[in-house]
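Response to reviewer comment R2.3. The reviewers asked that we include at least one raw input/output pair. We reproduce the pair for DUF2520 domain-containing protein here without editing.
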Amino acid sequence: MKATNTNSSFSYLIIGSGRVARHLGYYFHLLNQHFETWDRSQDPHALARKVAKSSHVLLAISDSALLGFYRQHLAGHDKVFVHFSGAHHFEDMIAAHPLMTFGPELYDLSFYQKIHFTITGARSLQEAIPVFTNPFSVLPPEAKARYHAYCVLGGNFVTLLVNKMLQGFSEMNIPAEAAHLYIEKILANTFQNPTQALTGPLVRKDAETVHANLQALSQDLYLPVYEAFLKTHWPDYPQK
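Raw output as returned:
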């Protein structure tokens, strides 16, 4: 199903060619919202023409390139400039960070519309991207680095941990489907009751099992990861 309530008084330019840019473009497409794109593979002179025609310029480029690109190409233009960094805030730009992971597969409209945005430099998501009706929260600039650190802990690091488990299971001929149900239920339990969802030897204070785990990982690069969680959750673990 496609939305038909497009506001034609706004014109959008998406700058970038990565996954965020691709997903943004597809979201606009599903909303029947006209937009233009520009990336470094295109004629540099076309950038100025497209910026001039746009009311909103969306910078879906890497965090490290944002400020330099803005200063070189966009500063001084009377436009709404939006970037999507979760960690950084820049004067004269609105930050609209989508709390979502963007893989190679595109999503459907109902999914895109559920994505939560965190906004810095504006009072609402609609100030940044009027065509979006997504839920949003407003963050002060000084909270962004901590917010993004939580995103990395809960998102990126979880991905690394699950991937590590899947690699280990594969070496033992344990199918990924077996882990799928396990991880799926862990996440469901965590959201249902985050303070009571944790299970396993750290909760039981099972020192013998923890010691065996540490021994099994003694030559593994993930040993310090296990030790870091142990220190966090069971700081008085009786070392052998």
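The longest helix spans residues 144-171. Residues 1-6 have pLDDT under 50 and may be disordered. Further pairs are available on request from the corresponding author.
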